[in-house]
Write a sequence for this structure.
């Protein structure tokens, strides 16, 4: 539901950069979305297209990449993918779990996977 | 920012512009202010009707003898919850988000400016009723409490796993209705602990106050 405000922020940012560079158009925007965020890529795309309509960013290629979460264990030093657990075999559903995949410690922190970043803007000058 | 000249007419700019960083920075600012003033803040999240306001009222009732409490009541447009909690005789600040689906650190920062933080040592923040968006926007609170009720059905936790990653305490509310709903609170508890094994899970009936002492213990307040 908050994809609109994030899309508005993306549009504002790229349009500011484009105007700083004196660009005639924006041809490509690349955005990274962490899998632990609450952002849906389809909705982000929909709203970003809407926000760019009528601007020099209209029609630019929008590329969204999902970023896998990385966690770090404070007990054994493991750093890597988050553990996934099956909650209910009948549901065939894997959920992220804050348990260390190697030592089982619960003293685990999330290092990445909860951010949303603009990674690249391609401008036509 | 690295600028790469790609061909004659295309300017390719690499950047690392975080869209969530601004909220995080403001949340850190809120936290610093709360720490300076010696105030412990609890962000209370959960769907509409899960029992957030009822639970906060009970917590306030039990704690107001020994803690100085204030409440920030987030809501889209109404002051209903603020009025309900206000009856407990504590400072309540209403934050209307308009059409936004969550409180953010900026709105809470404005509310903190309006409050007499020297007069309190405990702050409850009732987030907007929604189990998705508030998770994206830390407010600067010390702990996050997530309220789910058995009336939301048996899949509430597995459908919203991410919100529980940050929860210090999860409350399974309306246990008086568990049987009628055919929902097993133990299953909901197990689901929370699978996702976040260090969370504390407490079952409550916020109407009668059952389990509220355990919530206080779990929050260490
Ligand atoms: N039976 C029962 N009803 C509850 C319980 N907790 C809250 N309620 C009722 O559920 C409704 C919604 O509660 P409220 O605190 O306003 O939920 P909020 O939207 O999360 O703030 C109200 O009618 C409450 O009286 C409970 O533990 N058991
Ligand atoms: Mg409420
Ligand atoms: Zn480990």
């Amino acid at each position: 539901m908050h994809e609109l405000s994030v899309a508005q922020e993306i549009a504002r940012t790229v349009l500011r950069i484009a105007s700083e560079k004196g660009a005639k158009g924006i041809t490509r925007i690349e955005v990274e979305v962490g899998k632990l965020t609450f952002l849906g890529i389809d909705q982000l795309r929909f709203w970003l297209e809407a926000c760019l309509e009528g601007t020099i960013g209209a029609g630019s290629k929008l590329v969204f990449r999902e970023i896998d979460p990385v966690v770090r264990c404070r007990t054994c030093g493991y750093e890597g993918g988050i553990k996934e657990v099956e909650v209910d075999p009948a549901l065939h559903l894997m959920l992220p779990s804050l348990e260390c995949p190697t030592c089982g410690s619960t003293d685990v922190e999330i290092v990445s996977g909860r951010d949303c970043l603009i990674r690249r803007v391609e401008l036509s000058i | 920012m690295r600028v790469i000249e790609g061909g004659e007419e295309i300017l390719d700019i690499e950047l690392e512009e975080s869209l969530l960083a601004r909220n995080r920075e403001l949340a850190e600012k809120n936290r610093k202010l709360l720490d300076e003033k010696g105030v412990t803040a609890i962000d209370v999240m959960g769907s509409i009707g899960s029992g957030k306001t009822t639970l906060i009222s009970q917590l306030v009732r039990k704690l107001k003898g020994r803690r100085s409490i204030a409440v920030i009541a987030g809501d889209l447009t109404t002051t209903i919850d603020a009025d309900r909690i206000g009856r407990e005789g504590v400072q309540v600040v209403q934050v209307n988000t308009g059409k936004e689906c969550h409180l953010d650190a900026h709105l809470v920062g404005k509310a903190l400016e309006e409050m007499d933080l020297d007069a309190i040592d405990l702050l409850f923040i009732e987030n907007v009723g929604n189990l998705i968006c508030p998770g994206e926007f830390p407010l600067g609170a010390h702990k996050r409490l997530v309220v789910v009720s058995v009336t939301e059905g048996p899949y509430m936790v597995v459908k919203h796993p991410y919100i529980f990653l940050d929860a210090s305490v999860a409350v399974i509310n309306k246990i008086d209705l568990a049987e009628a709903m055919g929902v097993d609170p133990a299953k909901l508890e197990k689901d929370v602990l699978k996702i976040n094994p260090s969370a504390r899970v407490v079952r409550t009936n916020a109407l009668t106050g059952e389990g509220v002492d355990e919530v206080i213990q779990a929050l260490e307040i």
